[in-house]
């Protein structure tokens, strides 16, 4: 089987499994006239599959030309969120376009990869190795390029996505084969600035971070979510409670069980075996992605694919660690799996880019 | 397929280890937790035991009120539910939030608003689908049909404090308990409180009940029957309203307290609603929360009864001993005055006129040690063991106590002061009522009590019995004669109490207080030949003892009028 077909099937499988899980988490439906979440997810997947087909048949090298246009569009959308953002869950992250809510911060992740891939690929290896591409040009300038994204997303406030952008930025530096000492300096600066950043956090964000360090602090307050998540996962045991039988999410003890904590609901119903199977699918996907990114010889495409690999693996890891109580709770989606149109949409575009690159290689 | 870089593998291994730890190692424990998670306990509050008077009239009742409570699991960061409640009930959001944060404990519903109107309770109940996690609970609450009546006997209810919690934890009290403060409510809290029950339901987060799992019915508290006679208590409180002080009425043989009043009083209902007037109660300079009937004050001449017994028993004096009162007596370098020039008087006349000079001399003859012994013998300086928790013991001075505790000497002047009840001696109105009962019941020191029956079972047989003071009848008769004369004789200090159809015996007291008006005392019993009631009237800073006698007279007259004698 062709690799691009394999990654497509793996992703589709994960998405379908996700729909089943969303169906289960909202199982005894609120008959409030709203369209059920799983149906909306299915619609989003169908739309995304169509876009995937377009991207697959396109030439992703054209993204090089479109990079700055995409950058400006993303910036405009983020600004729009800041100005007329729709207030939901106490955070302004959504943009209502027609009848659907769109989250520009998801687009910002892909835009960051594209713009940095273009920036670094426009310099030759020679430039990077010589002083021509020094600390200012190699580190500071790309940071300034994406800092509007980070600032606007932090202002939403969406700490998780902002952190992921910084991760992407660092991994793009790594992929661009810049001097390792630059990255080291950057990481040190980043770590040193953390105590100052603390003051800019909202109270609930501080609370979440503190509760992560000590969940017993407030078992029914902020630590509630983390505790409930652990209970949900643990109570699945080896074989799980079975589909539609997870009490934690269905009885709504687990908040955000269809988005931020869908893996917990999933692990509750499918147990250790199901979780390992899902992990296996993600592992295969990352594996193939990495293989594609290493095999592409064009600088721009290699950076683009590498960025997507990092984006996927970091997001999946942080998401799982968060659900398992190993990381603070931040609002990020589980790729292909958790409910959220924007995330599904962008993930399938990324898949399309990877498939397109794969086609180019072979 | 290639080998993945090490960081992907490490990440994967971390996740797998953690999954294994949670789902296999801790799996059973977390599975059990997930089961209990879906269970909500809806408390059924036990109603507190009611309190009756001796004739079965209800003094404290219960009625159902509505309480708004919220399950803490359903309140998220956005406070949406609290905001809605604040809109509906027109209560500031801040107050709701702070009371929620304050009372949040465990998984039980947090009580937010008590004493909800019925209409508002119905509105909330109807909006239940929008107000996630809000429940209306029925809460039996104290109801006082006579408002302020007998407030000092009954006490009030409030949330448990740290001190009581640490003391009573072993008896099953928790942070959320409402307990009695002062009076019967505190002393018999263990019997009154009953046991809360609850229903277990499996619920979803909207508190829709899914499965009924079980119920534990509440056990109501035990009813308590007091020795108080509501009719007499009412009379006493109405008469006392014009003064600041206390009245105690006992049955001199049994020790049953028939009436016990202290004024200013308070309304126990204020504590239930935490109403604004509560602050006034706490900061009122006249301290309405103090039960003056069991608080201690200088007793004045009432103490002369004890000195008389001491003199007669020790054969220091007899009926023929006369002392000449010329208005004052010089002891050491100081003149100790009497309130009048009485001339030559024996013990009966001295009790009748309350002659200070006679008792100065008698006291000096007896000496301070004897005086202190007899004070203690008559139950002064120690608790009467009445079933009220805040009773004060009082103080009996003693030369050795003064020497060891205050490093000061005892002088003859102190003895003289002691003999007329001035100085450091402190006695509660209840102790004074018990003291005069000794002369009414033939020499027995009774133990006053308030509770006759708990849960229908008579406990008066279990009360501590009175003890005989082994005083010869002749001596008692002599003192009694003096008390009778004080009322009957036109010279007597309590002559105002003279009523042709009813004989009263008693002793007045005017206790001087430095810098303020004197305390007025009257302690006595009636009818003399077959005593039914002992009475002690104490009026704080009321001046002459005539006022106390006046109060006693009005009480007795009104009791007669209502056919209670």
What does this molecule look like?
The complex is a heterodimer of chains A (362) and B (565). Chain A has 362 residues and is mainly alpha-helical. Chain A has one domain. Chain A contains 14 helices and 3 strands. The longest helix of chain A has 34 residues, at 262-295. Chain B has 565 residues and is an alpha+beta fold. Chain B folds into 2 domains: 40-226, Penicillin-binding protein 2a (Domain 2) (Alpha-Beta Complex), CATH 3.90.1310.10; 230-280 and 288-561, Beta-lactamase. In chain B, strands 2, 3, 4, 5, 10, 18 and 19 form a 7-stranded mixed beta sheet that branches. In chain B, a hairpin with a 2-residue loop joins strand 14 and strand 15 (334-337). Chain B is elongated and about 120 Å long. The mean pLDDT of chain B is 86. The A-B interface holds A 28, 89-90, 204, 220-221, 224, 228, 230-238, 247-248, 250-253, 255, 267-268, 271-272, 275-276, 279, 283, 286-287, 290-291, 294, 313, 317, 320-321, 324-326 and B 1-2, 4-5, 8, 11-12, 14-16, 18-20, 22-24, 26-31, 33-35, 37-38, 72-73, 76-78, 104, 106-107, 202-206, 210.
Q: Helix content range of the residues of chain A, please?
A: over 70%
From the spread of the alpha carbons, the general shape of chain A counts as: globular
Q: DSSP helix count of chain B?
A: 21
> How many domains is the backbone of chain B divided into?
2
Brief write-up:
The complex is a heterodimer of chains A (362) and B (565). Chain A is mainly alpha-helical and 362 residues long. Chain A has one domain (3-26, 44-361).
């Amino acid at each position: 089987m062709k690799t691009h077909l394999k990654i497509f099937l793996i992703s589709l499988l994960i998405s379908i499994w996700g729909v089943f899980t969303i169906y289960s988490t909202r199982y005894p439906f609120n008959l409030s006239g709203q369209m059920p979440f799983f149906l909306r997810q299915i619609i989003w997947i169908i739309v995304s599959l169509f876009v995937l087909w377009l991207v697959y048949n396109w030439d992703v090298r054209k993204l090089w030309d479109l990079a700055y246009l995409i950058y400006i569009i993303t910036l405009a959308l983020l600004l729009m969120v800041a100005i007329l953002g729709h207030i939901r869950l106490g955070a302004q992250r959504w943009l209502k376009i027609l009848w659907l809510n769109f989250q520009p911060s998801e687009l910002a992740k892909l835009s960051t990869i594209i713009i940095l891939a273009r920036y670094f690929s426009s310099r030759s290896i020679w430039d990077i190795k010589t002083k021509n591409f020094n600390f200012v040009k190699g580190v500071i300038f790309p940071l300034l390029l994406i800092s509007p994204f980070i600032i606007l997303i932090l202002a939403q406030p969406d700490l998780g996505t902002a952190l992921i952008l910084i991760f992407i930025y660092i991994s793009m530096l790594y992929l661009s084969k810049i001097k390792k000492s630059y990255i080291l300096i950057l990481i040190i600066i980043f770590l040193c600035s953390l105590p100052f950043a603390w003051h800019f956090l909202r109270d609930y964000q501080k609370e979440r971070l503190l509760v992560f360090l000590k969940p017993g602090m407030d078992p029914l307050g902020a630590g509630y979510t983390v505790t409930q998540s652990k209970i949900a996962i643990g109570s699945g045991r080896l074989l799980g409670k079975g589909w539609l039988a997870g009490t934690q999410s269905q009885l709504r003890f687990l908040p955000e069980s269809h988005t931020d904590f869908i893996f917990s609901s999933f692990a509750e119903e499918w147990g250790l075996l199901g979780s390992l199977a899902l992990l296996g699918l993600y592992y295969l996907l990352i594996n193939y992605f990495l293989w594609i990114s290493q095999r592409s010889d064009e600088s721009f495409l290699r950076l683009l694919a590498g960025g997507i690999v990092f984006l996927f693996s970091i997001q999946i890891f942080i998401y799982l660690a968060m659900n398992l109580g190993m990381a603070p709770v931040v609002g990020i989606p589980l790729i292909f799996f958790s409910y959220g149109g924007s995330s599904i949409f962008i993930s399938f575009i990324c898949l399309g880019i990877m498939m397109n690159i794969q086609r180019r290689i072979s | 397929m290639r080998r993945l870089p090490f960081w992907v593998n490490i990440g994967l291994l971390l996740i797998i280890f953690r999954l294994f730890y949670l789902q296999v190692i801790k799996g059973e424990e977390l599975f059990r937790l997930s089961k209990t998670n879906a269970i909500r306990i809806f408390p059924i509050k036990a109603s507190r035991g009611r309190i009756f008077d001796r004739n079965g009239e209800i003094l404290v009742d219960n009625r159902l009120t509505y309480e708004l409570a919220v399950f803490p699991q359903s309140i998220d960061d956005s406070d949406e539910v609290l905001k809605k409640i604040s809109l509906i009930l027109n209560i500031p959001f801040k107050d709701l939030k702070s009371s929620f944060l304050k009372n949040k404990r465990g998984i039980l519903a947090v009580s937010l608003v008590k004493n909800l109107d019925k209409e508002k309770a119905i509105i909330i109940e109807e909006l239940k689908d929008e107000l996630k996690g809000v429940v209306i609970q029925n809460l039996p609450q104290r109801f006082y049909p006579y408002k302020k009546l007998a407030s000092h006997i009954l006490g009030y209810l409030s949330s448990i404090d740290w001190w009581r919690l640490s003391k009573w934890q072993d008896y099953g009290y928790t942070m959320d308990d409402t307990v009695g403060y002062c009076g019967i409510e505190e002393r018999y809290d263990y019997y009154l409180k009953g046991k809360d029950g609850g229903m277990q339901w499996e619920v979803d987060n909207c508190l829709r009940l899914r499965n009924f799992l079980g119920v534990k019915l509440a056990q109501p508290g035990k009813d308590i029957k007091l020795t108080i006679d509501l009719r007499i208590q009412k009379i006493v409180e109405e008469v006392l309203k014009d003064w600041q002080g206390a009245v105690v009425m006992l049955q001199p043989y049994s020790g049953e307290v028939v009436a016990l009043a202290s004024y200013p009083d308070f309304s126990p209902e204020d504590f239930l609603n935490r109403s604004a007037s509560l602050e006034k109660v706490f900061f009122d300079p006249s301290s309405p929360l103090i039960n003056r009937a069991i608080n201690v004050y200088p007793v004045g001449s009432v103490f002369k009864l004890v000195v008389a017994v001491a003199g007669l028993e020790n054969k220091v004096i007899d009926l023929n001993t006369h002392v000449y009162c010329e208005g004052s007596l010089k002891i050491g370098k100081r003149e100790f005055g009497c309130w009048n020039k009485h001339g030559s008087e024996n013990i009966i006349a001295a009790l009748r006129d309350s002659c200070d000079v006679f008792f100065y001399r008698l006291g000096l003859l007896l000496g301070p040690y004897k005086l202190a012994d007899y004070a203690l013998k008559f139950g002064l300086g120690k608790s009467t063991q009445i079933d009220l928790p805040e009773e004060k013991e009082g103080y009996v001075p003693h030369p050795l106590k003064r020497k060891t505790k205050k490093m000061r000497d005892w002088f003859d002047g102190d003895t003289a002061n002691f003999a007329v009840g001035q100085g450091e001696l402190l006695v509660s109105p209840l102790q004074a009522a018990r003291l005069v009962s000794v002369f009414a019941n033939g020499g027995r020191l009774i133990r006053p009590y308030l509770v006759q029956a708990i849960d229908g079972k008579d406990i008066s047989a279990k009360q501590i019995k009175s003890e005989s003071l082994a005083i010869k009848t002749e001596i008692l008769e002599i003192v009694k004669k003096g008390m009778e004369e004080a009322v009957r004789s036109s010279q007597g200090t309590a002559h105002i109490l003279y009523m042709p159809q009813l004989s009263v015996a008693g002793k007045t007291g005017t206790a001087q207080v430095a810098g303020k008006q004197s305390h007025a005392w009257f302690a006595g019993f009636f009818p003399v030949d077959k005593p039914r009631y002992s009475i002690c009237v104490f009026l704080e800073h009321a001046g002459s003892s005539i006022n106390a006698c006046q109060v006693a007279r009005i009480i007795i007259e009104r009791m007669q009028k209502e056919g209670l004698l």
